[in-house]
Amino acid sequence: MKKVLVPVLLSTLLAACSSTGTFDQPAGGAAVDERSQGAGAGVATVTAPSASGSGIAALTDPKNILSKRSVMFDFDSYVINDEFRPLVEAHAKFLVQNPTMKMLIQGNADERGSREYNLALGQKRADAVRKALTLLGAKEAQIESVSLGEEKPRCTEATEACYAQNRRGDMLYSGEF
């Protein structure tokens, strides 16, 4: 029942948010300037909308939630904590609004545990983020999940604070991997 209800609600929400742009003035506010001189006849120049919304520039704007790319996990867990749900929801919304964008999720683990265990745990973490994104409307074809295990630590000290930084799922977009 839940699998049927979520897509129906999302499609209703997206339909309600749609706007009615015209050919000369698209819905996003991008202006089209047609040039009719010389060899460039028929070529249009498009001015991108501001980055304040869900544009590509929002991915690198430190004031935007989309610039945050890591979902942190508890020790020996692959459950997304409530504090990271808004982050996952924002990235899912971005993927829905940008269907040509691709994402790679890299699951990571701290150095404790065997190499095989950490690879498996990293994969479960990456898959948990991928599943959350797809349940929120992103297409499965847009997202790939891989495990790096303990091979890409963010911190190398043998402290709990350092281990916590290494228990994460990193979201990378096209061009970043």
Tell me what the structure shows.
This protein is globular. Helix 3 links the parallel strand 4 and strand 5. About 25% of the residues have low confidence. The relative contact order is 0.14. The protein has a single domain, classed as 60s Ribosomal Protein L30, Chain: A. It has about 180 residues and is α+β, with helices and mostly antiparallel strands. Helix 2 packs across helix 3. The strands form two sheets. It has a four-stranded mixed sheet with strand order 3-6-4-5. Strands 1-2 form a two-stranded antiparallel sheet.
Architecture blueprint of SSEs:
Elements: H1 2-17, E1 32-34, E2 44-46, E3 70-72, H2 85-97, E4 103-108, H3 115-135, E5 143-149, H4 160-166, E6 168-173
Parallel strand pairs: 4-5
Antiparallel strand pairs: 1-2, 3-6, 4-6
Helix pairs in contact: 2-3
Summarize this structure as a short list of keywords or feature phrases:
single chain; 177 residues; 60s Ribosomal Protein L30, Chain: A; 6 strands; globular
Specify Rg, calculated over alpha carbons.
20 Å
According to CATH, the fold-level topology is 60s Ribosomal Protein L30, Chain: A
Please give the number of β-strands. 6
> What CATH architecture label applies?
2-Layer Sandwich
What letter string, H or E per element, gives the SSE order?
HEEEHEHEHE
N-end to C-end Cα span: 37 Å
Total domain count: 1
User: How would you describe the shape?
Assistant: globular
How many distinct helices? 4
Look at the structure and give the CATH class.
Answer: Alpha Beta
> Which structural class do the helices and strands define?
alpha+beta
CATH superfamily: OmpA-like domain
Strand order of the largest sheet: 3-6-4-5
GO biological process, one term: cell division
Domain OmpA-like: 60-177
Protein name: Peptidoglycan-associated lipoprotein
InterPro entries: Bact_OuterMem_StrucFunc (IPR050330), OMP_bac (IPR006664), OmpA-like (IPR006665), OmpA-like_sf (IPR036737), Pal (IPR039001), Pal_lipo_C (IPR014169)
